[in-house]
Amino acid sequence: MEKQRSSFSGSIGFVLAAAGSAVGLGNIWRFPYLAAEGGGGLFLVIYIGLALTFGFTLLMSEVAIGRKTKNSCLTAYKHLNKNWGWLGGLAGIIPFLILPYYCVIGGWVMKYAMSFIIGQGVTAAGDDFFSDFITGNGEPIIYTVVFLLLTGFVVFRGVNKGIEAMSKILMPILFVLIIGISIYSLTIQGGKEYDDRTGMDGFLFYVIPSVDGMGIGEILKVIMSAMGQLFYSISVAMGIMVTYGSYFKDKDNLVRSVNHIEIFDTVVAFLAGVMIIPAVYVFLGPEGMSGGPGLMFVAMPKIFAQMGAAGTVLGIVFFVMVLFAALTSSISLLEAVVSGMIDKGVKKKKATLIESGIAIVIAVVVCLGYNVLYFEAPLPNGDTGQILDILDYLSNNILMPILAIGTCILIGWVLKPKTVIDEATKNGERFLRRHLYTVMVKFVAPVLLLILLLGSFGVY
Ligand code: PHE
């Protein structure tokens, strides 16, 4: 007799866990600077349009695959069609590759949260603090291992007592904190150097569409950047949503839950911009927005340092919130891998211990990539990178689009969209966007993903 599969206790548990996965570093740190670079409101409008069509299609497909097969990512595809089992291999390897380096970044966030908590926020704002820390000996490894052990602990406790319970606590807190900092950010008046700027000006800079000096080429670039961000943000093509879908009860409403996950993810991303962009605008000016990835670890501490006492409190709240967001995402990565091992016959606790151990070893190597193993490898997009960047590029830019294209072809052409539509409406639920879904999964999504993939190979 097969052992009964774990399941979320209801759709709220599922939505919060899935939103916990979706809301991560991407929402808080990547979305705001991409929006600022992509013409503010222009980016926002394109992003929301894509979320309602492209994002919805991918998310719907994965959750339905999981629930229909009641299998984790590793074996679900094989159950749908035995010639397409290789997609499962790909879906299993992606979270395996991402987990270690995601935990390294989680460790960095933890270091910043600690620095603010122990009253060293001003030190953390120092020019070389970030680079000194990540290239240091030992400390990044310790934080990474602690972060990974925390992740392992939650997964070890199981779907209900671990992931669901954790998400039900952390996600509402995260939401309240982000609203709180956003409101504060809107009320900021003049920084030291830019005393005539207000938080409200920054907000307008964020939401008003600007197409100044943009030709059709630039607008297409914004579309591609919004699509890449959306794809990453909703945690599709990482095996996660298939795995979480397999814990989703047959009687719960799948269409509505998918909508809720998307709304949650998009609202948090938008609020992250409301929180960060006005602060950057007031203290560093519009130029500060081009900080790119350094924005979170370099620019934010500098801004908090300039705010005096309020900055210390805000710094703690901010980094603790980012820590929660990162933790619920890393949990979903580990769960996806562990769940695959369980479907192959390994016991849950043993699988968690084995995979956490492997991830620790790889994560240590990733940390050493900034230290004794330092090198600069060229990436197809013209940048150079260390071990972390290579793992990131391989998983995000190459393997994930391939998996997503494969999933669209499998659902759209081999099994037909009806498979997913039937799964989603098996209790008579309404599925208003079913025609849109069909066109998206067969034609539009695979073409967009192919363009994204070609970009990753440096074709354009
Ligand atoms: N969706 C997450 C984000 O927006 C990214 C992520 C989730 C990455 C889970 C890995 C695992 O940040």
Architecture overview:
This protein has 460 residues and is mainly α. The chain has 19 helices and two strands. It has helices at 11-22, 25-37, 41-69, 73-80, 86-117, 121-124, 129-134, 139-156, 159-186, 199-207, 216-233, 240-245, 254-284, 294-306, 309-343, 348-368, 387-415, 418-424, 434-456, and strands at 377-378, 384-385. The protein has a two-stranded antiparallel ribbon with strand order 1-2. Strand 1 (377-378) and strand 2 form a beta hairpin. 52% of the residues are buried. Residues 21-22, 24-27, 98, 102, 232-233, 235, 238, 329, 332-333 line the site of phenylalanine.
Main attributes of the structure:
single chain; binds phenylalanine; two-stranded antiparallel ribbon; globular; 460 residues; mainly alpha
Give the structure's gist in a few sentences:
The protein is mainly alpha-helical.
* Share of β-strand residues: under 5%
Distinct ligands, ions and cofactors found in the model: phenylalanine
Helix percent band? over 70%
| Number of helical regions | 19
Strand ordering within the main sheet: 1-2
Shape label: globular
Rg, Cα atoms, Å: 21 Å
Report the span from N to C terminus: 53 Å
Can you tell me the residue ranges where pLDDT is under 50 for at least 5 consecutive residues? none
Largest sheet: 2 strands, antiparallel
Task: Give a topology summary.
Blueprint: H1 11-22, H2 25-37, H3 41-69, H4 73-80, H5 86-117, H6 121-124, H7 129-134, H8 139-156, H9 159-186, H10 199-207, H11 216-233, H12 240-245, H13 254-284, H14 294-306, H15 309-343, H16 348-368, E1 377-378, E2 384-385, H17 387-415, H18 418-424, H19 434-456
Antiparallel strand pairs: 1-2
Helix pairs in contact: 1-9, 1-13, 1-15, 2-11, 2-13, 3-11, 3-13, 3-18, 3-19, 4-5, 5-8, 5-15, 5-16, 5-17, 8-9, 8-15, 8-16, 9-13, 9-15, 10-13, 13-14, 14-15, 15-16, 17-19
The chain binds phenylalanine (PHE).
Residues 21-22, 24-27, 98, 102, 232-233, 235, 238, 329, 332-333 line the site of phenylalanine.
